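> forwarded from #structure-qc
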C-alpha cells in the first residue's frame, strides 16, 4: 500500500489538514484513500502518537496507538492508499535512527512511504513560529536571538529535539540521506495564493476533484495572534531571513 505521510512543517495549516482528514475519512475511504485511527489523540488530531513513539517523546502513550498498531490497521484495509499526518514527523530529520525504524517497519509490511512537506517563506514563517513557541511552548528567547540562531544554523532547536528548519535545502539533504521514500516539497504560500491549501494537499494524495472541492470550503483552524515583536527587529530579521534562505532550485521529487 502507498502510505502518504504528511510531515509538516509547523505553521503551514497542519491542524486544518488533520481535522479535514479525520472529518472526511469516510469520503476519502470511498475514494480509495484510507485514514487510519492508530496514533491519533482525539477526533480532530493528527497521528502524533506515532511520531512521539519513534522519538521516545514523554507524551507518548501506547493507548493511543503505536507504529505496530498502525501497520496492523493498514494491513486490514483494502484501499490502494492511506494517509497519515503529524508535524512531529518533521523532527525525524535529525534522528536518522528513528526515521530508518519507520521506513524499515513499513517496508517489511509491504507499504511504500511517500512524504509530503509544506514550507513557507522564511520571514513570515519565523514570525509565526516564534509566536507559537513563545505563547504555548515555553520559549523565552528574544526574537532577535531566535532569528540569530536560525541564521547561524539554518534551524532552531528547543526541548532537545524539536527541530525547525528554515534552510529547506539542508532539511531535504538530511531527510533524503536516510529515507528511501520520495519527499515532495510544496510551497504553502503558493498553495494558499492558488487553489487553496487543502485542495493542493488533496491533489497530492490522489483525491478526486469532488473531495478537493469539499476542501475549498473547509474551516481554517489554529489561527493565532502574532507575537509582540519590535518593528525594526521584524524588518531587519525579515530581510536577512529572506536573503539567507532564498529558494535554490526545485527540491520536490514528483510522485509517480
Amino acid at each position: 500500500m502507498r502510505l502518504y505521510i504528511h510531515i509538516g512543517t509547523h505553521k503551514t495549516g497542519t491542524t486544518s489538514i488533520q481535522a479535514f482528514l479525520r472529518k472526511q475519512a469516510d469520503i476519502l475511504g470511498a475514494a480509495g484513500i484510507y485514514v487510519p485511527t492508530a496514533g491519533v489523540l482525539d477526533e480532530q488530531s493528527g497521528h502524533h502518537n506515532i511520531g512521539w513513539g519513534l522519538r521516545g517523546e514523554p507524551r507518548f502513550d501506547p493507548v493511543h496507538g503505536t507504529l505496530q498498531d498502525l501497520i496492523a490497521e493498514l494491513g486490514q484495509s483494502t484501499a490502494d492508499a492511506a494517509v497519515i499526518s503529524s508535524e512531529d514527523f518533521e523532527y525525524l530529520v535529525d534522528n536518522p535512527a528513528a526515521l530508518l525504524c519507520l521506513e524499515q517497519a513499513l517496508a517489511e509490511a509491504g507499504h511504500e512511504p511517500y512524504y509530503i512537506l509544506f514550507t513557507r517563506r522564511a520571514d513570515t514563517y519565523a514570525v509565526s513560529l516564534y509566536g507559537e513557541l513563545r505563547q504555548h511552548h515555553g520559549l523565552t528567547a528574544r526574537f532577535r536571538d531566535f532569528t540569530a540562531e536560525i541564521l547561524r544554523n539554518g534551524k532552531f532547536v528547543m526541548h532537545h529535539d524539536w527541530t525547525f528548519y528554515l534552510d529547506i535545502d539542508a532539511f531535504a539533504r538530511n531527510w533524503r540521506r536516510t529515507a528511501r521514500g520520495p519527499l515532495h516539497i510544496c510551497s504553502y504560500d503558493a498553495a494558499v495564493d492558488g487553489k487553496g491549501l487543502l485542495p493542493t494537499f488533496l491533489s497530492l494524495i490522489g483525491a478526486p476533484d469532488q473531495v478537493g472541492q469539499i476542501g475549498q470550503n473547509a474551516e481554517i483552524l489554529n489561527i493565532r495572534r502574532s507575537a509582540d515583536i519590535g518593528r525594526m527587529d521584524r524588518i531587519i530579521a525579515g530581510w536577512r531571513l529572506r536573503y539567507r534562505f532564498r529558494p535554490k532550485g526545485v527540491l520536490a521529487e514528483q510522485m509517480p
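QC bot note: Strands lie at 2-6, 33-34, 81-85, 112-119, 155-158, 162-165, 183-187. The chain has one domain: 2-244.
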